Amino acid sequence: MFSYRHAFHAGSHADILKHLILIHLVEYLQEKPGALTIVDTHAGAGIYSLKDGFAAISKEAEGGIVRLLKYIEAGNPIPESIQHYLEIIQSENTQEELALYPGSPFILANLLRPQDRLKLFELHPKEIDILRHNINQLKQSKQIDVYAEDSFSRLKGLLPPPSRRGLVLIDPSYEDKQDYRHLETAMEEALQRFATGCYAIWYPGLSRREAAALPDRMKKIATHHKRSWLHTELRVENAPGERRLQASGMFIINPPWTLEANLLQALPILIKALGVDSGAKFVLKSFEA
């Protein structure tokens, strides 16, 4: 159950898609002055070394953030959203070297205003200790709560947040097939309690039946609750038999109206920068309730 570690995938193409969208969601919601509560259901360690440890073993960053930087260094133009994402990543590094990759907790902490709160969940017995240590080093640490609890069962108790303004990032490993069922239950409960919240659901693009069905299951739940949705997927290669993750997706319930146009600019560039073969492509669909 606890073999998965976020560090294996730090800086991968899946992280780029997830974090590009996450930054846009937060900054859109922060256009209003009211306090924003952000929940990260599977936080990991918070920040990762790309030079040693699990990330150095997997080398997934080489096909992700490193490949993207090489594309830019070659003189290729990028939209403002990708540039802004890279500036946030670079803020954790020196100008000379990309040695660290901030996970969602550090990216979200970077974006917090004084009135905002961040709630992080992590069950991995080793990751939770590293996460607490890392968060304690941040100047925003007093705005951040860390829980060694099952986020799927705990989430409904946090909703709605006091300000009635919230963003929930749900990004389990799906290593346990039960995560798909737990996700559906959590989303039904969350939308019953806090229908206007923004929910960002990440998933791996796997051949597993549950993974392939996830977007349609989320569409059904969103439609039942009469909520708008946006679905996007980024595939960097199509190599049957290859065990590396080749695609990932995000399903957003109650997306900001600006997100689709933002992704229409960014996704074609990500295909050019990160695509490995002719199977590289993206999906972008939305529904306005």
Can you summarize this structure?
The chain is α/β, with parallel strands linked by helices and 289 residues long. Helix content is 39%, strand content 18%. Strand 6 (166-170), helix 8 (178-193) and strand 7 form a beta-alpha-beta unit.
Descriptive account of the structure:
39% of the residues lie in helices and 18% in strands. It is an alpha/beta fold and 289 residues long. It has one domain: Vaccinia Virus protein VP39 (Rossmann fold). An eight-stranded mixed beta sheet has the order 5-4-1-6-7-9-8-10, with helices on both faces. Strands 2-3 form a two-stranded antiparallel sheet. The longest helix is centred in the N-terminal third of the chain and has 17 residues, at 13-29. The model has no long low-confidence stretch (mean pLDDT 94).
* Assigned CATH superfamily: Vaccinia Virus protein VP39
Mean pLDDT score: 94
Task: Characterize the main sheet.
Answer: 8 strands, mixed
SSE string: HEEHHHEHEHEHEHEHEEHE
Tally of structural domains: 1
Query: How many helical elements?
Result: 10
In the CATH hierarchy, what is the architecture at level 2?
3-Layer(aba) Sandwich
Biggest β-sheet: strands ordered side by side in the sheet:
5-4-1-6-7-9-8-10
Which stretches of 5+ consecutive residues score pLDDT under 50? none
Radius of gyration: 18 Å
What is the overall silhouette? globular
CATH class: Alpha Beta
